[in-house]
Amino acid sequence: MHNYKDEFIQFALDLGVLRFGEFTLKSGRVSPYFFNAGGFNSGRAIAKLGYFYAKTIQSHQPHYNVLFGPAYKGIPLVSATSIALFNEFNEDRDYCFNRKEAKTHGEGGNLVGASLSGKQILLIDDVITAGTAIRESIDIIGANQAELKHVLIALDRQEKGQGELSAIQEIEQNYSIGVMSIVSMSDVIGFMETHGLHHDKIDAMKTYRERYGIQA
Length: 216
Hints:
By secondary structure, this protein is an alpha/beta fold. The protein has a single domain, classed as Rossmann fold, CATH 3.40.50. Helix content is 43%, strand content 25%. It is built from seven helices and eight strands, in the order H-E-E-H-E-H-E-E-E-H-E-H-E-H-H. The protein has helices at 3-15, 43-60, 74-89, 132-143, 167-175, 185-195, 199-212, and strands at 18-24, 30-35, 66-69, 94-103, 109-113, 120-124, 147-156, 178-184. It has a six-stranded mixed sheet, sandwiched between helices. Strands 1-2 form a two-stranded antiparallel ribbon. Helix 1 packs antiparallel against helix 2, helix 2 crosses helix 3 and helix 6 packs antiparallel against helix 7. The chain is globular, with a radius of gyration of 17 Å.
């Protein structure tokens, strides 16, 4: 496993962003773990999170022109990522985010930041559950004469939706979009096993994966 993945998992554990227990999801499934990106709620936390997103971009080297953060959660994520790309990797990238409600005065419109027109876009978000936010972003980006090429999220749960595919696999298949993640559920389990953490939770994680996990 890439070392930055280990660092991210430990960071998420330290902040309580990644927790273990019994959590009822919107789907009705009872998950043995929960990931709450809202826990990255300090200057230090959001700065380090931006670094992990930037490091993942550097690792994968996707081709894109503009970073995009879907409102509201994606706004601090895309800002932190663009800052980290410059501060840590000397890579100066344009970024943009949308408003939930279009502005009717001043510059107007529903976008803030760099122009998207004619550009290839990398979208930054925390997780993909049903994929609704991604589909909304595809419409927004397309309406601005741009193309969503890549999505980067913090955690890939590697979990089936209603069918055999995950929401991520459906997005990749239906829209020809590449989806990357800082870490996946498999990374988390591997980290726990390697470092001897939460032994009592590993079996529950594996059982959940066997029941709801996707075929890799």
